[in-house]
User: Fold these one by one.
Assistant:
Number 1:
Amino acid sequence: MSYTFGDHGYYTINVDANTKLAVTETKSPDNAMKPLVILIGVLIAVAFLSFTLPALYDKYFKKKEKNDNEYMPVQVVANNEENDISLKQITGEESKMGTSTVNNALTAALMPKESAHDPKCPKTQPADGKPQKKKLPRLRSLDTFRGISLTFMIFVNYGGGGYWFFEHAAWNGLTFADLLFPWFMWIMGVSMAISFHNILPTDTQSPEYAKEYRSVWFKATQRAVTLFLIGMFLANGYEYTTWRVPGVLQYFACAYGITAATILIFYRTTRKALETEESLYEEYLSQRGHLRMSIAGDSTSNGVCNPSWKRWLMDTIRPAKILWAYRAEWLIQLVVLLFYLIMHFGVPAPGCPAGYAGPGGLSDESDHPFCTGGIHRYLDMKLFGYDFIYHHPTCLEIYECRAYDPEGFLGAWSACTLCYLGLMAGRIVLHAKEHSQRLLYWASSAFAWCLLAGILCGFSKEDGVMPINKNMWTTSFILLTAGLGLVGLSFCYCTIDVAKLWTGAPFLYMGMNSIMIYFGHSVLADYMPFSYMLSNQNHAAQLQMNVFGVLAWILVAFYCYKIKFFIKV
């Protein structure tokens, strides 16, 4: 028989002469879901008010302010170098400037200096002859999605209210908690696409190129080393004989370093391929412009020679053609992926079959009790030693498995692949200028990654070629994580950057100071106001404490945001 026992309930179990069990409930258990339902209701109410109150303010108060200032004389001041336009109130003789003068000045300031779509308008070069590259700003939706991942990561690390679905899977399978750290890894890759675009030199033939290129190498190396050292510090080496070497920030360091090296090693090659593709696209735009003018002058053509569907198709497939320009980088990433797969499937640990990926212990009727993680654990034991890996894996309670590190050496290679998938997703932002194009590519990529992950795991928990498993960072796991990450980023992008229905608060504040918040929550986890001693061990009390701790970190992040205090590595 099967019976589900509730929290803090009282039960009587009777066994008759035929060994038949009978369970009688003598005291009703607590409703474990009630505190969570109340919390979700409060969050929905807060979210609703955060949307409606600003809308009401814009409708009834800002409209009045606009009407009051409608006839206020203004002067347009334009900075041609930075394309910066500002309006300021004027008095005296300046107020005599007519409306037409203001309109003419504003039009001149807003007039683009060049148009890539107009073949009559040639490109201009700055005085020094070097091509200018427009730096991309921070993507608000990306910071928000990072903040969402970090906020729930802290909530899970603090206990997740004691609910099972906020805990990591025992071995195979996926829970919400399993997504948060890998999402953070994937988001780092997306951010790298924008940051490296801003700091890498455009002109590879410039005399200053070598110096700037070395500078980027130095910064990337410095950041990877810093992340690794911070991770080692958080591992607390006070007991240096059991100082754990693998860890979360160590994974970030490895993934960032390998991905940065992938970008930099082939930068000249990819830059040349990008310039070729851009020149072909400029030629296409020029031909399209001339064709448009010829059609406009021919009343009998009816636009048949240049149908809109063809233009739409060319503009839509252009980002895919541009991503092909990065194919040289795929060589390194292919080596990384193949190394993981060959070791995972082809190299047996001593005393274990090749490709064994179970938790060992009591699993599989204890056929392989000492083979926890197969080759994954064996490599960690050889590289780091038993005393320097994690001793409390998620499989310990159910399977009584051996010590196993979920951030082991072999899984780091998969983390590099996940980071690079994020990098390619971020490059869509660089090369797809329309919202619809970005969302189309993200949606199609999300579908492809999730479908491939499903095929690898056989759309089941335990079957398939490669089950979804965070402990080993299986390929199916990182593909599913990347696909769901695209879904999350697309949602934030639609609501924040496209429809502008949401500012991203309060998660935006967490995402813009992520390294400081992560470091702080790790060091101060056992200090008030981030946690406190519980008198009652139930879901309501634990959920209250965990939410209280998360809110405290949100307030810290908000204060840092207001005073513009940000820590970057």
Number 2:
Amino acid sequence: MKRPTRDTVDPDDLYRENETEEQRNQKAKQALSIRSEHTLRSENLPFDIDVWYPTVAQFTFPSYFLPLTRQEARAMINMYQTSILRRKWLRLEDVDVLRNLEQRLEEVFQKHFQGKSAFMRLCGRSPKDADPLDPEDILAEYEDQLADLVKKNPDMDPTDPNTRFVAFTKVNWMKVRNAREVMNLLLTSERVHVDMDDWLRYGEPEQIVLREFEPELTVDNEFRAYVYKNRLNGISQYDHYGVFPHLAEIKDKIQDKIMALWEVVHPLIGEESYCVDFGYLPSSDSVKLIEISPFLTCTGAACFRWSNERDVEILKNGPMEFRLNHQSHVTDGLIQAGIYERFAADPRRKRYWDFLEQMKPSSPPPFSYKTVMWPCLGMTVGAAAMYLSGAPAIPTLLFGLFTPLLYTQAKEAKLKREFAQKFEDSLKGIKRRSREELKNLIFFYGTLKSGFHWNQKYLSSSEMLCKARTVDPFPLVIGDCGVPYVLGDHKGKGKQISGEVWLVSDETLKCMDDYEGLRKGYYSRESINVTPQGEVNPLGTENLGEISETISAYIYFKTKSDPELLEQPFYDCYSLENHKKLYKPIKHIQVKQRAYLGIEYDIGH
């Protein structure tokens, strides 16, 4: 297991809750001044799976998204620090939060994956460095795959590192079938720990993504394509260490299928330069899109090299080249460390639930018979007294034997029920407190409305109060990415705007501030008056009191208007039709990240 190589904040720091905006900005600038994890995360952000998935869902694997809360991110960090780094950061409240997360995950499996398996990842990347739940089973499956490979290919040497590597690529060790397997990957991965830490430091929320598992999608069937300025100029096998002899025979066919699918999905992606991974499925002789990444050095170049000028020239300007690896770079040391040592059984290893049980048991302690000793003794003495007073012998004997036994069993069952109720109440308490904390009102007019691109990620734990219209006119325009803006530096112009008012918690409000880029200077948050339209959610009355005909809600204004935006027509509503037709999610997030990173998106920055 790898260990973090950078400092993490102390849990008492509460991830900048008590910091000023100036302090937070200074930390971000320091992180961006080097090739830090935060720099890499920021470069990849426009290509997170939740950015591009809705636009190309029919061409990739069905995926289900579970938005995380900041409390869950904190609990995951504290668990990693406790179980992996042996620091006592785990708190009692973290235990309830993690158990509630496990329950939420199990609900997703019950709803979408009954009888099926999934591949788990976060929005930005997968936990490839995590520990599987049963590593000894992985080794056993690897040995079976190795024996089967050599049996089918007698010319392959089982002691050769490349042969062993090819066999291991057939082991689906990241396949998950239930919530416990997902939690184990989440809580043992340094990648996940770093990404949760980055979120709480710099404000880019994460989601757990469960993708329908495809057993044929092994490493030898994955390929990376390179698109530059609307041309696909390069394809490579995804893994550049091993040699997969069978690929040479089907190379041309795979290239044709990748090119054909790319021509279909490219207009939907809405970006001129990127890298895109495809998977070849032998049984159906077809390819599917796996994921999209930036055309930057932070994306692996596979059999090409970003440091090689000729390779970069090919990837930018062609001619089209499909590269396969013809010389193995797999060594005995890599096999030993990457397979045998990594997946060796360790009797000292504790499961994540062992740590949770130590902190706060989910089952009652062993039943102590001392608690029923005196009542049972009294029943036995009573039976003896009945016998001495002339009661029939057999009924009295049965009473003396079975009454204490039945009493003991009833007492034990009652204690178990009470403990189970307390455990269930603690999980319900999390949900109840979440609803009670929805006391902030935000007026949304764009991509966060119900049914729009970002609604589930950011508002799944919130409640819509009502549809509404602004009392005053505001300039609502649509930018070239299909993103709606209300221009804060030109108030008084435009029209009354239709949108939605949502009830959100303080945590979600902070999350929205981060998403809208308040500290980066993209937007400002101000209060405006709106008029409710139609039905009003009763939760609003419960949390806020009576809802009047005019209510005050926050709105996010674009702080500085670009000249071209002022030339656009003013709208009174950003409709779902506008959204589906015009919105380019990758370009939208890129616009924000370019300003944040202070770079142009091109190789060599």
Number 3:
Amino acid sequence: MSGRDLKNFLFLHRSDPTDKGQVFTRIAGGNRSNKYRQVDYDAVRALIADRKQAGDEKLGKVQQIAQKSKAGKEHNLQKQHKMVWHKEQLRLTMARRQAQIELDGTTRLLTNELPACTQFFDECEAYNAMLSADTGDFKAATVDPVWDLREDLLFWLQQHAEPISQGEGEELREEHQQITEQVESVKTQQKELMQRLQEEQRRLEDELNLPYLQNLLHSGEKQQEIGIPEAMEHLECPDRKLKESVLQEFLHIDMRYQERLDELEKVNKETISSNTGGWKAEDHWTFHVILEQYPHDLPHRRQLYLDRLRKHLPHKTRAALVSHEEWYAAYRLYHDQVRSIQHSWTRDRAELMGKTRAMFAAACTAHEQAVEAKINHQKQEDICAHLREQLHYWQEIKREQMAIEAAIKARMREEEEENRKMEEEKEKKRRAKDHQRLVEFYEEKQKARAAAAEADRRRMEELHRLMAEQAEHDKERVKYREEQIEKKTQKRREAQERLEEEEREKERRLEALRQMVEPHVEVDPVRMMGGTTASKARMGIGAEEDINIQTPLFHLHGFTDTQVASDNRVRVEQALREAGLHTSEYARHILKDIAPPRPPRKDQE
């Protein structure tokens, strides 16, 4: 190791000024001092085991809290699912009732209007009754025995609860074995039955999904009309060019909307390539039904239906569910856009049909009016002459009527003028009476004000007198308080002077103590201005010299164990400690009187 590496082993230590008496305590205590105890590894291991056990217990509590939190969250989700299920059940119940009401009304209407349908509906009711009877027989043969077996097992468990808990009885084990075999046999039978039912359900669904049945079901749906409506072609219009241009507009509308549909289909070609998004039909149907049960305004809707889908479709990962959700959203958006375009298409065609009817009707009306105008021109002139005669007669009557009305209005104005004068006279008399009452009221009010002013003046004189007396009393109190404050101030000043004198006395004593312990060191400017060992090592001075790596890095200025043990005070303290008297007043008195091996320095006396 070279001198350049010494800087890596330099350590700084600054003693704590509060540990002035610890050095003597450690020296006096020796190897058996309570400051230096031997390590009890067994106790440490036991402490570590206790800490580890406590940590395991806390970890178990944390896990229990996490489990309870998870169970609480699951319970909360289950409650929200139940609310959604209840609303869906009510909606389906109402829909079923409404459908049944509509079916009954249709049946009744068709039976009354078409007697030939009576036999068909009678056959439907007989078939429905047969299905209900088959369902009852199936339940009695398959479901009821399982419930009976469950009740028998519960009764057997209640009857043999104590022997089972104690684990006694060979007969009980044999009976338990027989019951287990019987339950397994019932499970096997139920499994086979469910497989047969699922196979039958699949076969019926395949039959219902046959193309000709699907065509029958969708044959009643309203198809989008295209081309020129037949009703518009049969409308009458005197202007042939107008009719052709208006009917051509239907073809323009169809072409424009068909282009929009083709463009939308091209954009969403991958989305509509499959009706189930690459899933099985049953899984997609489950996804669709569950998604429709949760309304769009429900809080945390996506979290709820994803949790429900995860439980109903455990073989699907969350990524698969999210991917199918995105596909389903795009699929629904496509069909919504198609329906919107078809709705706009139908609306525009209906508006155009209405405008066409109105336009053709207006054209026919204008044509008829032009034809009739020529026919009725002469008749119109005769009618105008007759009307002029009637107008002259009506003007004569009107002039006479206006003269009579002017005379009536003149008489009415005279009567109104007379009534107005009479009302003015009455108003003058009323105003005179009101003025007299106001004068009297103001006089009474002025007298009341004068009396109140006199009372206020007397009260103010009384208050001034009371305030003058109170001012004299307050002056005496203020003078007394000033005298008391002056006395307190004088006392505080004297106390402050005493404190300052005590502080000056304390500084004099401390200065005397500092002079007593002041070290006397010779002046060595060379050593003071020279470099230290650390600075020389940092500068590389003396790095070429051979260094003995066995020598201590720093000089020791303490005491060896032999030097410490040679002190009589240490041996006496050891003997007192063995006797159990090292903490007594007697031991302190003896140790104080024993002299050290060499006298202490003057600055440590």
Number 4:
Amino acid sequence: MTESQIGKDSILTKAIGQVGAVEFLASSVADALHEKDEKDFPAKTALQTEIACLNDTLAIFRENLLLFAEQLVDADDGLLQGGLFTFMDVLCICTDKLVPVLSDLATLCTKSESRTSFLSRWLPSGASSRALESVSEAHDDIKVLQPLLPVVLLVLQEKISHQGQDVIADELIKRVAFGEAEGGAAPAASTSTLTLIELAARIKVEPFWYKVSPKLKRFREMIALTFAAMAEHQSPAAQASLYHKYAAPISTAVSSVISRDHGVKKSVETMREIDIGLLQRVWSIPDVPVIAALNSLTLPSVAVSQLLHVPYVGDDPVLSGLAVSFRVISAKPLPFSIAHLLPDPPPPSPSILQGLPGRRTPRPPTPPAPAATPPTLPLVLHFHGGGFLSGSSAAHENYLRQWAIETDFVIVSVDYRLAPQFKYPVAINECCFVYDWLTSAPNLGMHVGKIAIVGDSAGGNLAAAVCLKVTNDGLRQPDALILEYPALDSCPHLTFSRILFMNDPLVPVSASAICAEAYLSPEDNLRHPYVSPLYAPKEMLQRLPPTVITCAQFDPLCDDAVSFWQRLRHLGVAVRFKMYRQLPHGFLSLRALLPDAGFSVSESSAFLRELLLGLPPAQDGSDKSSAAADSRFPMFDNFN
């Protein structure tokens, strides 16, 4: 990155300027307070102390930001995006809160005629005490970021020394965790390898991003309290009871919300002790029968949402004799019949219950009766997220149905088998089988015209891997690829976003480690293209179709998406990248909790229409999204 690139438009330049401005305001307030009489300003002493501490904090940030700028002068421009961009952006948001507080405080101290208007703003607690409270609260927001400064700077230095490549965590974690941020040898106590989970416990980084808005704060509390409530009722004895399995956690969550301080403290303790059972229970809540039934009442109405099962044919011995399941969704009645794929009605005997939760293999499909030539239609093939160990097509219907309505495309979502019962590469083989089954013949009842492969989170990993695999195996190449907040790097790297969000309430670093261990076997190569598509050889990546990559700003996986976008862009692949500001991981499914997430769902529909029909989102007259005109959602790149 050249000096001109760290210019007036740089988020780093903005952060440096904003910290300097707040320092100036704080110094002005300190000078003005010195002249005030404590009788007129009861909180003078406490406020002077708080302002002095604030100035010390700001000085630390200013010094470190200048070090960042020095490191970035000759670095690749991609380093100031993703997680590092988010760190600077949140710092700007936090310091922004201080500007009006300090400005009004300076006015109060220097201009008596402004006293009435200022007091009305701070009533009923009184001007000085309320000012102290507001300064302290905003200062606390900034202090939450302070422990991250040496860690982020160290990772930046390491990435630059490795020419922008991510570095394996082991030695770097030791240096960070034991206070060796300035370099040098770690103390003897650090001779054993530390994991990223242990680093998270040592530096105690709070999930700071929820401070950005009240909506995010409520969302964070809800997720954390849900984990805590589920953790209290996950013993084998409790799981045997329907009450303890479903009703008791809800009761516990409600009581935790009522006693918020106790509930949040309990949830923090729970997040440090997550295991695979707890993860599966929390992430599978949308598939709980009662929740799924209630959720179905809120889903957009479509003509078709049918789960189908097709016998697997292929080389994977684990899948031999089993059925592969997928859901077909269409906003309008299908112009072809899928009756030949519907399973036989269940027999009246209760013996069908004996096979649960396994899948019943249907009868072999009967060819449809000779009829008119099957229609040729565009199709979207979707792979759901859930860390490879939870999720289903039904749990993701809230946005899949909207896509179907807004695009008029047939959507097929695969219910691939989940870890740890089925490890890599079973899920990829199922997904590839469905792709080949759909595209090689009109097995569904239609010829597939253009086809887009779409995946979110772990499904994004599968989508990228399937694209690479079917192309490498000589099958038909997909026409488009859309990756929504994808997990593309299975290696234990320290990226900026993984550090910033290591204690994220939805995807904490411990959850990422659990998912990788559940999905992969010890002998699996973590850099294999189908395990970590980020490391696929350039010869494979150059053959990818036009690609859209989206990510959430407040997401541990943000840098996975940024790095993949940069690789494709440098290789000349037609690629578009979009970061959704101030949204967490999994935003496609969170419209009910975070209304801003609705922009992303509609914009994905626009991407699909553009990729498969060639219709620009702003010109086809059907774009229901206002995201394109919303500055909160900047597009970093267009198709090359």
